[in-house]
Specification:
Layout (H helix, E strand, L loop, with lengths): L2 H4 E5 L3 E2 L6 H19 L3 E9 L3 H9 L4 H18 L6 E4 L3 H17 L2 E11 L4 E2 L15 E11 L5 H10 L4 E2 L1 H12 L5 E2 L1 E2 L7 E2 L2 E6 L1 H6 L1 H5 L4 H6 L6 H4 L7 H9 L12 E5 L3 H15 L7 E4 L2 E3 L2 E2 L10 H20 L6 E3 L1 H31 L11 H22 L3 H22 L1 H4 L6 H22 L4 H10 L36 H8 L44 H5 L3 E12 L2 E10 L4 E6 L7 H4 L3 E5 L5 E3 L2 E3 L2 E2 L1 E3 L5 E3 L11 E2 L1
Parallel strand pairs: 1-3, 1-13, 2-3, 3-4, 8-14, 13-14, 15-17
Antiparallel strand pairs: 5-6, 5-7, 7-9, 10-12, 11-12, 15-16, 18-19, 18-21, 18-27, 19-20, 21-24, 22-23, 25-26
Helix pairs in contact: 2-14, 3-4, 6-7, 14-15, 15-17, 15-19, 16-17, 16-19, 17-19, 19-20
The structure holds 5'-O-[(L-methionyl)-sulphamoyl]adenosine (MSP).
5'-O-[(L-methionyl)-sulphamoyl]adenosine binds next to strand 2, helix 2, helix 8 and strand 13.
């Protein structure tokens, strides 16, 4: 890999700081972080640039309404962006503000040259200006009574124009000859159609405000917010415009900006040689949603070409997240905060959901219920359970030490094949920015591994000493699968992957590993750690009941990372705070709130063993939908241990754990009878998913 290819520079849009980050802006930033983490895993030096777009009219208006200067207003909001990016675990990034003097200098120098070149001219502009979108409306966009629209202002201004029309043929050739420049194709076609429809010159300055970057040749004007904002990508790359300016010789624009779009990078790269070592321009990947490719894929390349600077290598245009079928908007009050979502499913739950739920490019529909369901199924059940089953059985059967592969069967080989296929598929999808597909490939492996355990039934094999070799292979193979899964899923769920990594007893941090780790295996003799819950199943119905919320609202959940959620509550999240009913109740009755405190669940008995020195007790290993727990039950007089394996039972999931005969019991199994000499365990009338709540 050459030094140049080793570098990977990715950007998010720089967000308007008129409100705090929400699920949409978090999505773009998380996607960018996944791209960077994957790139680092592939041995590249990744730089992520994000930031704040501060010079909009809307911000100036909001600031004025609060009696603040626009700068003070932005200073107040910017920390909430940094806090959110820390909360959603954006690994390392640079945050650039358009109010930064270094940025102003770059913008002024850049456009000054374009002005001198003759690609900017003075005219006047009259039209309806949308103060939130920060643009003049096209004629066909103006509503019937624009005067009554709160966000529209009629403005006539002397203004400067950029000769976009001059670049029409060039832009067409650029996009026609570079099919991968815009991803996905649907957005590329949309841009091609707009170019073919004809490009008019665009207004790039305003005099109605002085909040912005002043034009160097006419300080009565400030640059239109988009003109200055796009150049943040250049400022953020570490590009040194003063040095670059020295490489210009009068009249050499033609040689600098190629006429042939095929040569776009090679012509300018020579000029970039004068740049300091930290310069990352040209950018590898600009990520944005479908609202703004016009600015990124048409206007931005045209001004870069006019100035004579290399073009970005790729634009990724993703879809929009709606909320339960409706566009998210402040006025509808349905803007989802990442903090609310994380209170339900934690940071990795949110990252996983956003990356997995929709293929990049398509729109997504957000709902808290869907978020919780995916978390429960994919993370708590499939992944969490696979790790827990493997590590706790390894502990019971091999004292946590990874055994050798001894007798190898077809099933073992099939799992190994699936592991290799998942590596290949997931890596290819990560490279192609197909994160949902990458996760699918990883979860297919997880699914196969869970099935493999069910088919191999190691808890039965272990009782047959002649088959011990088979069990050894099972646990060796499972540990290799888990290691692979964590390496692959790391860019999406970095926090949880590292915790699981520790549970497997593997050393170091995943941040420090690279793709060659995928070729390594856990050696026999390695000692795993002990299992602990990482993803705790969320009881959605209970959350809803607690919050008293309707289906659409977010129940106020406690963070899974909060200490409260970790208090051995049977993995069910925080304790309920039931509302008190006012009805007087006779002493003999309990209220529905009292009953709600008892959490009954369906469990599956995975193993049953006698307890030494206790005639009445059996030690049951019960799978609760998420992990296996030990429950001691006084039923030894009524049931032969082997007759219980595979049976579904009902148990109290939130009983405080207690020690009996040196063993910790985590729950209580429900049974009826006993006194009459007969005892029956309470079982669901038909098989249910382990973990479901009994009401
Ligand atoms: N300031 C401009 C961008 C200038 S870039 C040089 C801007 N800011 S914004 O705050 O409105 O952010 C728009 C971007 O936020 C979208 O392109 C997308 O990346 C993200 N999203 C905002 N709402 C979104 C959804 N509802 N769904 C998905 N992404 C969303 O435009």
């Amino acid at each position: 890999m050459s030094q140049h290819d080793k570098r990977f520079y990715v950007t998010t849009p720089i967000y308007y700081v008129n409100s705090k980050p929400h699920i949409g802006t978090s999505y773009t930033t998380i996607i960018a972080d996944i791209a960077c983490r994957h790139a680092r895993f592939m041995g590249r030096e990744a730089l992520l640039v994000t930031g704040s777009d501060e010079h909009s009219q809307n911000i100036a208006d909001l600031a004025a309404a609060r009696g603040l200067s626009p700068q003070q207003f932005c200073d107040e909001i910017v920390p909430s962006f940094r806090d959110t990016w820390a909360a959603v675990n954006i690994q390392s990034y640079e945050f650039h503000r358009t109010s930064d003097p270094r940025h102003h200098h770059l913008v002024r120098t850049f456009f000054n040259r374009i002005y001198q070149k003759g690609d900017i001219y003075k005219g006047s502009y009259s039209g309806w200006y949308h103060t939130s979108d920060n643009r003049f409306l096209d004629e066909d966009e103006v509503p019937e009574n624009p005067e009554s629209h709160p966000r529209l202002k009629h403005l006539t201004e002397e203004a400067y124009y950029f000769r976009l029309s001059r670049y029409q043929d060039w832009l067409l050739a650029l996009h026609e000859t570079h099919p991968g420049l815009i991803t996905p194709d649907s957005r590329r076609n949309e841009m091609l159609n707009r170019i073919r429809g004809g490009l008019k010159d665009i207004c790039i300055s305003r005099t109605s405000t002085d909040w912005g970057v002043k034009l160097p040749w006419d300080e009565q004007h400030v640059f239109y917010v988009w003109m200055d904002a796009l150049l943040t990508y250049v400022t953020g790359s570490g590009f040194d415009i003063d040095t670059y300016e020295k490489t210009f010789e009068p009249g050499n624009w033609a040689s600098r900006s190629s006429e042939a779009p095929g040569d776009l990078y090679s012509v300018t790269r020579a000029d970039l040689k004068s740049q300091p070592a930290q310069n990352r321009w040209p950018c590898d990947l600009h990520i944005m949603a479908k609202d703004i490719p016009w600015f990124h894929c048409i206007i931005f390349p045209a001004v870069l070409e006019s100035y004579g600077l290399a073009l970005p290598k790729q634009f990724l245009v993703h879809g929009y997240w709606d909320f339960e079928g409706e566009k998210m908007s402040k006025s509808l009050g349905n803007v989802v905060s990442p903090q609310d979502a994380m209170a339900l499913v934690g940071v990795d739950g949110l990252r996983y959901f956003l990356a997995r739920e929709v293929p990049l490019g398509l729109d997504g529909d957000f709902s808290h219920e869907r978020l919780v369901k995916r978390f429960n199924y994919d993370l708590a059940n499939d992944l969490g359970n696979l790790v827990h089953r493997t590590v706790s059985m390894l502990d019971q059967l091999f004292e946590g030490v990874v055994p050798d592969e001894l007798a190898v069967s077809d099933l073992d080989d099939a799992l190994e094949e699936r592991r290799k296929r998942s590596i290949h598929e997931a890596q290819a999808h990560f490279e192609n920015l197909q994160y949902s597909e990458a996760l699918q490939a990883i979860w297919e492996l997880i699914g196969e591994a869970n099935k493999y355990i069910d088919e191999k039934k190691p808890w039965e094999l272990k009782k047959k000493p002649e088959r011990r070799d088979e069990v050894s292979t099972v646990f060796n193979r499972l540990m290799q699968v888990l290691r692979t899964v964590l390496l692959l899923a790391y860019p999406v769920i970095p926090g949880a992957a590292n915790r699981f990594w520790g549970i497997l007893g593997l050393s170091g941090r995943l941040e420090d590993l690279q793709a060659d780790a995928l070729n390594e295996r856990i050696p026999a003799g390695h000692k795993a750690g002990s299992s602990e819950p990482v993803f705790m199943r969320v009881d959605w119905e209970k959350k809803l009941a607690e919050s008293g919320a309707g289906a659409g609202s977010a129940p106020a959940g406690a963070s899974l990372d909060s200490p409260k959620a970790k208090q051995g509550e049977g993995g069910s999240g925080p304790a309920a705070t039931p509302s008190r009913t006012e009805t007087a109740t006779p002493d003999a009755f309990i209220t529905i709130d009292d009953f709600a405190k008892v959490q009954l669940r369906v469990g599956e008995i995975r193993a049953a063993d006698k307890v030494e020195g206790a005639d009445k007790l059996l030690k049951l290993t019960v799978f609760d939908g998420e992990r296996e727990r030990t429950i001691l039950a006084g039923i030894a007089m009524y049931y032969a241990p082997e007759s219980l394996v595979g049976k579904q039972i009902v148990f109290v999931a939130n009983l405080a754990p207690r020690k009996m005969r040196g063993l910790m019991s985590e729950g209580m199994v429900l049974a009826a009878g006993g006194d009459s000499g007969k005892l029956a365990l309470v079982s669901p009338e038909q098989p249910l998913d382990p973990g479901v709540v009994v009401r």
